[in-house]
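Chain X:
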Amino acid sequence: MELLVHGVGGTTPQEMLGDPRTVRIAGDDTAGIHRRTADADAESRRPEHQHRGRHPDGAGEDAGRPIPEAYCWSNLTSGNSARALWLLLLPFMVANIAHWMRPAAPARHAAQRLYDVLVRLVALSLTVLLTAAACEVALDLVAWQCAAAEHCAAGKPWLGPLTGGWWAQPGRRLVLAAAAPVALTALLWWLSHRTWSAYESASPPPRPPGPVRPLPGGERPALSLPGFWYGRRLVSRLRAAHTAAGLLTVAAALLVPALGHDRRPGGGGAAAVWGWTLAAAVAAGWAAVVVVVARRGRTEAEPDERTDRWASKVLPGAALGVLALVAGYAAWSRPEWSAAARLPGTGVFAWLMLLQGVLVTALAGTACVLHRAAPPEGCAGRCAMGGLGGAAAALLACGLGGVLTGGTAQRVADWLDRGGTPGVAGGAVAGPPVLLSWQAAVIPVLLLVVVVFAGYAAARTWHLCRRIAPGVVGSYEGERRESVSRSRRIARAVARARLTDSTPALAAAVTAATLLLGTGALAGAALTGTPPGPAADTWPGPLPALADTVQSLGSWLMGAMVLLLVAMGRRAYRDAAARRTVGILWDVGTFWPRAAHPFAPPCYAERAVPDLTWRMYAWTGLTGGRLVISGHSQGSVLAAAAVWQLDPATRGRVALLTYGSPLERLYGRWFPACFGPGPLNALAGEVDCWRNLWRLTDPIGGPVLVGGDGGDGAPPVDRGPLKDPLHYGRSMEHPLPAPILGHGEYQADPVFGAERAALLDRLAGAGRRPAVPGQAGPLAPRPGS
């Protein structure tokens, strides 16, 4: 049998199987196994033929071919357009990726635990940042500033409850507006809980003990551990902690202005005492949240079914109780209290940014220590950014969080000000915190860095295309040069494919620019206390006008980025072509389990990998046949992860065929602890029936750079580069020009069928097929049992 697994963007079972008549034999509408209708009962009709890889009815066109099955998982990451809202959680997803980017140091290294804790703390700060942004919009801009300004509130009937009656006092307005961030926190909790049940609750199949090839440090590869794809306990604990953190953030936003009023001369003395008591309760809640987040990481040795009752139940309930008490304290009658300027406590954004900078810096230092401790074969010079990829991802997550925060606040302030300019003379509202204006001012500069790098990359691609174009025809034996444009088109495809290898340099440039510009924004806001435009009024020449222009442009860009993100996500989930464009980052990000941020988009691999593992166990155990799992692009990563989960006896009857695979080119460089040279070499040692096909024109796939002749006659894993296009010019046999396939249609190359047949023959030649079907695998009785 051949089990086909598609890649990014998905495809239909009819396209995968090459037959319009298909039937689903297992799974559901979200992810399922499909066969051609003619093959639905192939095993029951002629079981003796399926071991030799023939169609049951012996048809000539199918003779010598394995029975094809298609595993379709695209609905795990796509669906209706409402799922575009997941892109608003992009900072959470990037922070979760940072956890898996740690260098390939031994698992027992002391710095590894520190690395994991730092990533989880960065993720926690992002939850606080998102909740604080919701508080900034609802409590500060709407309830504190606009509801108190007659010019702003005029013409907004929806502000009526905040401008008159019992709710007109500032504290009560804040309590009413706090319903928005509380609802947002509840929504995130519900989505995390619901998606766990729908996507990540698939239990792994039973696996008998057996030897696993260890890494150089002596530990087992992470993806071979039974509990890797089932992290219920950690997700449950982190979900509770982040929910409590969101509720405590809202409580602090209510408590700080009310306590600040009561502390002033003439304020309520008894009320101030009660306020300080509540402040102590909020601080104790924060201490509990930090302890829960930092105390324990993932448990992967076995599937962890347990839950921490105290963390999962008591902590969110206690935080909700504290919030209720703070809301009652803030709503206490204070007739003399009036709102002015910005809401007290909005300086938290500066402290959050400073804290994130410290955490990212510590994370970078820890990553350097781990990178130096990695064995020589752990990265072999291929590790992206010298092991600093995780720190760069964490900084990018913080930057994206700042963009979403600032963009939303800036656009809401402009909308409330009815055409005025918030924060300047004549404006109806004071506007968002000064730091957000400084963050907006650095966005154009950061985009300029990206544009410069893109121009440099385009120039390099052009020069590379000119250099390799004359030699293209020489790689096609017996073909004559047809035209200069044909050679240039092929060379251009090769040059563009190599742009993928420049991604680490772009990430390093953006990371350095973000760090420098972010530091400058924080310093400018702290030293001047005013937005960039007014702060530059004393500067000479055109600098004041330039600073004001940059701030205004950045403000609009931040708001446009938020809208663009939603629009891109909506289009990606409705249009297959757009989905392929953004699907690479999205499918890489949601491939990994939620180990750092529980509110990140769900991990589809925690459903897909157990599905594939169960299918391989069941089919080989019940039939005793040979199986090729054939994965394209992201499907090759799922296939490799599933093969890693097999026991040695079952793995001996399974061959792995990958094509257009990012296993080494993307995953090996950016996630060295799980897919670096050490783990991939261990997989190649356990799966000696593995072939990988690749092309020079493929921008995603590449060689895996492992395996070879280890003395047993095994062929190397990599086969390539394959010719693309298959034929250079026109001929009598090929009168029409062959297309440049790039990342797709590997099955169109005759090499594909030959390598698949060779894998099946190698399985049979190695004597791995049991004599009696059903006597191997964990789902069938074993000898002596």
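Chain Y:
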Amino acid sequence: MTKLPPNPHSLTLEELFKLLETSITGLSVAEAKKRLDTYGPNELEEAPKKSPLKLFLAQFANVLIFILLIAASISFLVGDEIEAVVILLIVLACGVLGFIQEWKADKALAALKEMAAPEAIVIREGKHLKIPAREVVPGDILVLAAGDKVAADVRLVESINLKIDEAPFTGESVPVSKDASLVLPPETPLPDRRNMAFAGTTVINGRGLGLVVATGKATEFGKIAHMLKGVEEEKTPLEKRLAVIGRWLGVLSLIVAAVAAAFGIMRGHSWLEMFLWGVSLAVAAVPESLPAVVTAALAIGVSRMAKRRAIVKRLPAVETLGSTTVICTDKTGTLTKNEMTVKKIWAGDKLFEITGTGYETKGQILYKGKPVDIFHHPDLYHTLLVGLLCNDARLEDGKFIGDPTEIALLVAGLKAGLNPEAFERVAEVPFDSDRKRMSVVVREKANGRYLILTKGSLESLLGISSHYQKDDKIFPLNAQEKQKIAQMTDAMADEALRVMAFAFREVESVPSENEIERDLIFCGLQGMIDPPRPEVREAVKKCHEAGIRVIMITGDHAKTALTIGYDLGIVPEKRPAFALTARELENLSDHELKEKLKKVSVFARVSPAHKLRLVKLLKEDGHIVAMTGDGVNDAPALKAADIGIAMGITGTQVAKEASDIILADDNFATIVAAVEEGRTIFDNIKKYMLFLLSFNLSEILVLIAGFLKGLALPLTAIHILWINLVTNGPPALALGVDPPAPDLMKRPPRPPQEGVFTRRLVALIGAFSVLIAFFLLPVFVYGFSASQSVIFSQTVLFTGFVFMAVAVAYVSRSEYLNIWRYNPLANKWLNLSVLFMVASQIMIVQCPFFNKYLHTVPISEKWWFILAALALFYIFPAEILKSLISRFFR
């Protein structure tokens, strides 16, 4: 086993490479796998997970269940062994069902954590590989870039303007400049180890390479985490609210059950029978499966989101999704395909065209339809050369890796026949969103000359350029020429082209960083297109139907953004009044901007600071805002938004950490799919509550009404527990995974302050429970008068409840639409659960073996028909009540 080096900051790189038996080209894939087995995964120890046995036993950690077990034990002691055994078996079945629900929920959540796990880029066998961060091993070469979260402790091998935020680690608020060339004394304190980068910190600027010297719990962060105890996972706000509701229902049910039991004792029933009956009634009334069903509904729904390429990092985000009123989205890669292709180049007053699409390097440079030799056009040559070399994209194993804009520029240079290997990069000033440009210094290997190459937005480059090139001559850059360049930029932007500007300067030696971006020679523009994704137009339309506004916030040119916005239906018509630029934003007060926000749907040339301002103003206006982002500087806006959405492909690790949801495909349509799933999950929880509570309350109403009318005991304790098992289990779970309602994305967003128990839902629960009781109480009375047998009338009522549960389940599939406006059989799991309920009821009623244990008797075909018809007929008044309630509670 290769030993981890102590004090790596005090060793030379040669010593470290030797100790860790690796090199700058990285480990072999086989050696990395071997080391993963040796050192273990690069992750911190998690708190011990609850064992299946503990999870199963936890199902019985309920006061009512505990009392029921005591009651069953007393029944056994007084000689009623059959009743005791049946009660224990039903309680055990409820426990198994609850265990399955929680086990599935835990498994789904574990899978989600795996999907949302961070990634790292390492060099192995000389190739850049993107791998899960947990697979990084000592001896790996870690690639660091702005926005990345450092995956392990590394000794820096290379650092170019590298600055790292170590605030979470050292408390230092200012990013630390790193220097790979340093060798420090062993006693150097952690905050001063400038030749190291530590796991859990964030790259703010520049880039670098690091030799991994510690992973997992051996990292400095891991040593700190090892001292801390595991923190119990927080419940979601929804689960907390429902837990409170469950407790209130529990208290209410116990009071009702106690009063009912007291009535029974006064009327001559034995205290043991009434005690058992009262506890059973309380157990049936309290939706003890509620937390498990909610967790399962959330986890299963979130798993469905993952299949639709939206990875939810935090379950509370699901609740907020249904309330989203505004989606602020980036353009490139989210609304568009992210397959940039340079189509036009303007250099030296000439407009050139480039053939070919996508990332294919086949194509020609044309002027007036004829191919040109770029070496006969120095301004064209320099424009393409800057795009080729002032660029972090690369071609590796026939595949382009990097930012799509940079890949497009690289492809354009390769189409022109330029060779990037003929130059060597010797210095750089990385791109940042405030400067809106990037610069490099390169040395031409053939003749040793140095060139400064800069690319960026037109506004950014004109401010640092003093001359421009036309053919092979250099002229002063005056106001007239700047206006001509701006007009050409606008003309290209009108064609929905993204325009970038390019400048250069030849120097005798490598200048200091402060001297690089000054007195440059403007050489040309490149216009590229990124076509809209075909599925986005429909997604935007769906948003508008759902009452969700879409706002495009992009760094692109206003006219380009407006063209795309018009094409996708984000703006209703092609008018400049619908776009605001960064400069205009800065001249508006918050009040003025709030007014503009009501009409403007496209914001162009904006920085991340503007994104943050827009989010805050929208929230102040009462909106629930979803915001997309991918860069380091997007993190504040992502955190400030109600739902932060990071790009999974182009997004930096910082953006992913700050977000609630990660889009695995960077596609706007996936955001809309996630909103739909979020609404579906919340809708399904309400369906479950409508079904369960209206049905459980109807049981109490029937039983209490029976007592008040002086009737015999309508149901025994075993009947109540059986109904609880078959109705609170399979059908409730099936409603938790119900398909989306047809009108789901045509409703306005749910108010964020609105809980599960809306006035409409409470009214429906009350109406349905009374209606069920109204239908079933006469069944018991008629059954008794027809047979003069208590056990027969109990069996009829018992069966009537199960049949009624079927009708209530189908009616509960929508609290908005009548049953004839949606396909009632669309939920296959509900159909299967109904078959299970009916089949099991037939079995326990008609089979003599079960009659003895479940206190039932066989009933005739006539009664089966009456009960089925009654349940079917219940649907019509229930749907009429639904329509009336919908009119009063919209």
